[in-house]
Amino acid sequence: MARKISVIIIGASESKIRHFGISINKLCTLAVAMVVVLGFVVYGAVGYLMHRSQLEAKRQMQAQFTQQDEELALQREQIIRFASAINGLKERMLSLTQLEDRVRVLANLDSQGREGIFGIGGSAPDDLNPDVELKEKQNELIEDMRRQIRLLESASQKQHHVFSDLLAQLEEKRSVMACTPSIWPAEGLVTSSFDYRKSPFTGKREFHKGIDVANRDGTPIAATADGIVSYVGHNGSLGQLLVIDHGYGIITRYAHLQKILKKRGERVQKGDAIALMGNTGRSTGPHLHYEVRVNGLPVNPQKYILD
To answer: CA 72, CA 64: separation in Å to the nearest integer?
Structure first.
């Protein structure tokens, strides 16, 4: 006979008492069934949680892939812009080189033997192709960009030295031009040129070392170039004389003056009024005797006059 377990249930009022028995076999069967059901529930819950976790991980991975794709797209866009910027910088450097060449031609500056910014006989590197398929040739494009950046850095340093040298030459040229006689010293009529002539005093043939410009007494006389007044005073047959030292071995002499307006050692600029025309010294009438001397030798003043 199978053993049973008795179960007594007493109500709260103790008026009802229930009593039933259950065999141990049935109880074991019921316990096993509950365990199995509980196992299925747990298994289902764990499976659900794992599935949910996998879905969340997949979503995060997709979001990460999307973010990486966006970052790669941004990097590709930046690489393309950078490549275009390198091409533009190279074009501007070449334009500056062409500008330098034109300035040298206009200023009559020597450009022979000059090394180009990309080396002797070197030409600018080929333009980068920003439309290249970056998925396949991104590393190749980046390496080419690095190479061209190094080349442009070297070229920019050379161009800096080139323009510094050009600026120094232009400054020297400007200084030389400012100190080179290039305008008429006074208004009037040229009565005697830089040439042999018959002396109005002796009647003999002599060489006239300057030009004579005749006009009324008191006609203003201008410095024909920048310089420093090196002499003022009476000088024999030249009468009242003013001499300007322009540097570079160039001096100008202004003779037969009525009045000298500058002092010795005073700096003058091209076009400044320095004296008034007169008739002092050995002279046949009011005029200016004007000389240009280079390294102590008289030269034809009219070859220096540009206007």
So the answer is: 12
| Position 77, amino acid | E
Question: In which region does residue 94 sit, left (phi positive, over 0), alpha (psi from -120 to 50) or beta (all else)?
Answer: alpha
Question: SS3 of 258, please?
Answer: strand
DSSP classification of residue 264:
T
* pLDDT tens column, 209-219: 999 999 999 99
First to last CA, the chain: 147
CA distance 166 to 178: 18
The single-letter DSSP state of residue 114 is: P
**What is the Cα–Cα distance from 213 to 185, expressed in whole angstroms?**
9
E-state strands within 17-119: 17-23
State whether residue 293 is helix, strand or coil: strand
Q: Where are the domains of the chain?
A: 4-71, 76-178, 189-303
In the predicted model, what is the mean pLDDT of the chain?
81
Surface-to-core class of residue 201, CB atoms within 10 Å of its CB (0-12 exposed, 13-18 middle, 19+ buried): exposed
- Give the tens place of pLDDT for each residue, 119-164: 444 455 555 555 555 555 666 767 777 777 777 777 777 777 777 8
Both tokens of residue 192?
């005697």
* Fold of the 189-303 domain: Glucose Permease (Domain IIA) (2.70.70)
pLDDT at 13 over 50: yes
Q: Helix or strand or coil: residue 207? A: strand
| Residue from 224, 228, 206, 234 nearest 271 by CA | 224
Q: Which two tokens stand for residue 247?
A: 């540097």
Contacts of residue 207, Cβ cutoff 8 Å, sequence gap at least 6: 195, 196, 197
Residue 140 tokens read as 């190749």
pLDDT the model gives residue 121: 44
The residue count of the chain comes to 307
pTM of the model: 0.55
Residue 244's CB is within 10 A of a number of other CB atoms, namely 26
